[in-house]
Amino acid sequence: MSRWLMVLVIWCVGATAQAETRPALTVLLLGDSLSAAYGIPRESSWPELLRQRLAAEDSAVELVNASISGETTAGGLSRLPALLEKHRPGLLLLELGANDGLRGLSLKQMQANLTAMADAAQAQGAQTLLFAMRIPSNYGPRYSEAFHQSFVDLAQARDDVHLQPFFLASIALDDGAFLDDGIHPSAAAQPALLETVWPQLQRLLPDSGQADAADAAPAAAGNSAPATARGR
């Protein structure tokens, strides 16, 4: 009996230790090159800066960055089920869509893909922070505005989807904030991207006390962002 008792005690101690190290919240970031450290050191990217901030605040939040350069909403949708199954996130950061717009793909299909990803996250108990994107006005004002409105409409239609206004807004008109390709933000611009994302994200983190705040304000803010974007 004493041997089995010892085994039980060891198992209980191990289970307790595992529970203590389990994150209070896993955040899954599904994005494109804006979130995949394209052309810059990975440690300089805004997701890594976010990871550092969470660690500095002793936050029990784990960030999983599953972003891939060039990703479209169709690609993200195909990868998401396996990522949800593996990581079981409580929050999905959905930073996709700009490559759909830059390729002139169907906005109806893009919105359907985003909706399906939000549905998949919700089915596993996760909320979604949807990054509203913009594309250059030379795609035509009608298409450009309809593109941006696709994100706003999706967020406004659902309680489980929160809107992150265009997170390049603070640097979009500053050519010096981009790499030589004029498309991807430089390493020096990454802190500005994090500061743009942080207020919306913080509302959804554990113990923030702000998760139940009205989400109409972020949606309205999304409408006021400059109609300028860079491709990824």
Total count of strands: 5
Which structural category fits the helices and strands? alpha/beta
Number of helices: 8
Average pLDDT score = 85
Low-confidence stretches: 12-20, 209-229
Q: Largest beta sheet: what is the strand line-up? A: 2-1-3-4-5
Beta fraction of the residues?
5-15%
Write the element-wise H/E pattern from the N-terminal end onward.
Answer: HEHEHEHHEHEHH
* Straight-line N-to-C gap: 64 Å
Largest sheet descriptor: 5 strands, parallel
Helix fraction bin = 40-55%
Coarse shape: globular
Protein architecture, described:
Strands 2-1-3-4-5 form a five-stranded parallel β-sheet, sandwiched between helices. By secondary structure, it is α/β, with parallel strands linked by helices. The protein has helices at 2-21, 46-56, 73-87, 98-102, 107-123, 141-156, 190-202, 216-223; strands at residues 25-31, 61-65, 91-95, 127-131, 161-164. The longest helix has 20 residues, at 2-21. It is globular, with a radius of gyration of 19 Å. Helix 5 runs parallel beside helix 6 (141-156).
Summarize the SSE layout with pairings:
Blueprint: H1 2-21, E1 25-31, H2 46-56, E2 61-65, H3 73-87, E3 91-95, H4 98-102, H5 107-123, E4 127-131, H6 141-156, E5 161-164, H7 190-202, H8 216-223
Helix pairs in contact: 2-7, 3-5, 5-6, 6-8
